[in-house]
Amino acid sequence: MSGNEPVLRVFIVDDEPPARTRLRDVLTDCNDQLSLQVVGEAANGREALDKLVDASVDVVLLDIRMPQMDGIELAQHLHKLHKPPVVIFTTAYDEYAIKAFELHAVDYLLKPIRKERLLESLMRARDSGPLQNEVLHDLSPEPRKNLSSHERGKIHLIPIEQVLYLRAELKYITVRTADREYLIEESLSALEKEFTSRFIRIHRNCLVSKDAIEGFVRGGEDSAESGGWMAKLKGLEELLAISRRQQHIVKEFG
Amino acid sequence: MAKSTWGTLQLSTMNKGRSIKQNTMKEALPNFRNLGITLRILLISNGMALLLALSEASSWIDVMQYMLQISTLLTPILLSAWVLLWVMQPWLARLSYWYGVLTVNILVAVVTLITCFFGGELFSQLSSDESAFYLVRNTLLSVVVSSALLTYFRLRTLALSSSVHDARLQVLRARIRPHFLFNTINAVLGIVRTQPKRAETALEDMADLFRMAMSDARDLVPLQKEIQLSRQYIALEQMRMGERLHVDWQLQDLPEDALIPQLLLQPLLENAVYHGIEPLHQGGKISVTLRRNGEELRLMVMNPRLPHGEGLHRGNKVALQNIRERLNLLFDAEAHYQVKIGKDFYRVEIALPYVRVRPKLKERSS
Predict the structure, then answer these.
(1) Which of A40, A147, B196, B249 could form an S-S bond across to A158 if both were Cys, CB 3.0 to 4.6 Å?
(2) Does the domain at residues A8-139 carry the CATH identifier 3.40.50.2300?
(3) Cβ within 8 Å, pair A111-B182
(4) Which whole-number Å values give the CA distances from A34 to A5, A13, A31, A84, A92, in the listed order?
(5) What pLDDT score was predicted for residue A20?
(6) Is A204 exposed, middle or buried (0-12, 13-18, 19+ CB in 10 A)?
(7) Over the stretch B215-247, which tens digit does the pLDDT of each residue have?
């Protein structure tokens, strides 16, 4: 029936081996009505990211509850890919997620997976684009465990607890860890909102990890903030300026 | 798995005969051999004596004196009545509730009469002409106190059994986690084409688990049966999770005839899997230790825990709360329950009395 349609390339992410087998079986059953190909599978988020960077995939079937990184967070990182795939979530039971999916009209499949339902979702996915990042943000009940940065054809995951500060530059945000810097394309105010319990704003362009603050020193006289306080972070030589409006932080943390 | 049918037939007869029903049925006498019950009796009757002393006395010294006076009479009556009740316990348990109440009250009255009559000489204030009055008065007081105690125990049992009833529903809901149910069905579907035999076993195991979950949670079951069920449960989870789930069973010289509350071990394992193993990408090991320690059975389940793991989920709390309530109802102060949350582990320890299968029932059922 789909003689001139291109083959739909499908990728499976689920931490349980039999669940992946089940999806493969049902996808095979779908093959006579929709030409598709299973191009790969992964047992966790990190593996999926590594494999998907190189693969060209149209649809990802993504389990929500997985160890380390849940499916919704993984979907957010998949957005960093050059050509983000369409995501169809799968879940056995997750009241919160299902409510959120319904609310945002996001497609999901309930386990056990049925052929008719899967076929329907795949057909729809073929004609639609990937989910908006804002929608994915709304789906997630809690902040991400990692930030992700696309760099030379690879997606780096940066565990959020390793981040010392986030600083807005012209077009990007610099993510600083003890080892190195990464660049990400996100908005500082959205990050501030998402990780409100972890970071504190010390300057219009800078969020600092509360755990990383080591102390405060009086700043140099060369800048506009002359005489103002600077924050000293654990493991960093660099001092970060605290703007006049945020000077009260010194009292709270000092 | 071949042994999975063990005890199913045996159980159906045993369930009817052997559960601690004197504790759980709506109207039943308290178990006078239970430590918790005994302590309550001692505490409440002495508390009443103190009230009496307070109302009679005119100074604090007075209270002491009255209390002493009452105690010289109360203590021997209390002790001898308790010893008699302890001895008669198995027989009392078989009486219908109201006959039981009557028997206990008569027993208490007789004990009081005898104590006052023969011990009367010891109590200086009992002069001969007043002795008849004192005899009747003390007997009356004793019966009032014993009735009050029985009423208290009756109300307590009623309160607890309704919570057991609620808890049962909660257990059903918390235990058969939808998460577990649907994932397992999905997994069975996943292996049914390639490993049909394994899928069959999995469905059989699921049936056993659900049958147990839907039966009366108040019953005691043979320890071996609960272990068997827990192993079946673990087999199902291993089908889903594969290499990630390891269980180390330490079962040391467990008595064949021991009974434990059903669904005591399995929900603990389910918690361990759900909260301990599933969040770990590389999986982990659950340790189960079961052993007999004199007249006690000791049970321990330990699982890894993410260092920065969040607190307990509500489902977890419900399941654990339910286990605690059931232990409390069945064994009162004779069961102990302890949770230890370490930096990277989570451990539940339970000690409960070693209850044996009645030999008669064993013969009948074999």
Answers:
(1) A147
(2) yes
(3) yes
(4) 9, 21, 5, 21, 25
(5) 96
(6) exposed
(7) 766 678 899 999 999 999 999 999 999 899 999
A22 to chain B: nearest residue by CA?
A: B190
Element (DSSP H or E) covering residue B230: helix B223-241
N-terminal to C-terminal alpha carbon distance within chain B: 21
Just give the CATH number of A161-253. Answer: 2.40.50.1020
Of B186, B194, B281, which has the smallest distance from its Cβ to A111's Cβ? B186
In angstroms, the Cα distances linking B302 to A8, A119, A212, B180, B236 are 46, 43, 34, 20, 19
Q: Ramachandran region of residue B285, left (φ > 0), alpha (ψ -120 to 50) or beta? A: beta
- A68 contacts in B (CB within 8 Å)? 279, 281
- Let me know if A153 is exposed, middle or buried by CB neighbors in 10 A (0-12, 13-18, 19+): exposed
Q: Cβ–Cβ of B279/A110 closer than 8 Å? A: no
pLDDT at B333 over 90: no
Domain shared by B44 and B79, yes or no: yes
Q: How many CA atoms lie within 13 A of A84 on its CB side?
A: 18
Max Cα-Cα span within chain A? 75
Q: How confident is the model at residue B203 (pLDDT cuts 50, 70, 90)?
A: very high
Q: What is the pLDDT of residue B258?
A: 92
Cis peptide before A112 (omega within 30 of 0): yes
Cβ <8 Å between B186 and A65: no
CA distance A124 to A120: 6
| Alpha helices for B285-358 (secondary structure H) | 314-331
B248, β-bridge pairs: B287
**What is the pLDDT at residue B121?**
59
pLDDT at B188 over 90: yes
- State the Cα–Cα distance between residues B190 and B236, nearest whole angstrom: 13
Domain of residue B217 covers: 2-15+176-365
- Closest-CA residue of B relative to A23 is B190
The Cα angle at residue A35 between residues A32 and A39, in degrees rounded to 5: 120
Kindly report the CATH number assigned to the domain that includes residue B227: 3.30.565.10
Work out the average pLDDT over B92-108.
89
**Quick check: B299 pLDDT over 60?**
yes
Q: How far is B182 from chain A (nearest CA, A)?
A: 5
Which of A122, A135, A31, A134 has the alpha carbon at shortest distance from A85?
A: A122
**CB of B49 within 8 A of CB of B70?**
yes
Q: What is the ipTM of this complex?
A: 0.80
For residue A206, count CB atoms less than 10 angstroms from its CB and return exposed for 0-12, middle for 13-18, buried for 19 or more.
buried
pLDDT averaged over 10-residue windows placed end to end, chain A, 254 residues: 74 95 95 93 93 91 90 90 90 85 88 94 87 79 88 88 92 92 91 91 92 84 66 88 85 77
Tally of structural domains, chain B: 2
Residues with Cβ within 8 Å of A187's Cβ and at least 6 positions away in sequence, in order, are none
Chain B residues whose CB is inside 8 A of the A211 CB are none
Cα–Cα dist B302/B275, whole Å:
11
And the tokens for A6? Answer: 């291109």
Whose CA is closest to A63, among A14, A118, A130?
A: A14
The helix (H) or strand (E) run that includes residue B135 is: helix B131-175
User: Which regions of chain A carry the CATH code 3.40.50.2300?
Assistant: 8-139
Residue A122 is predicted with a pLDDT of 94
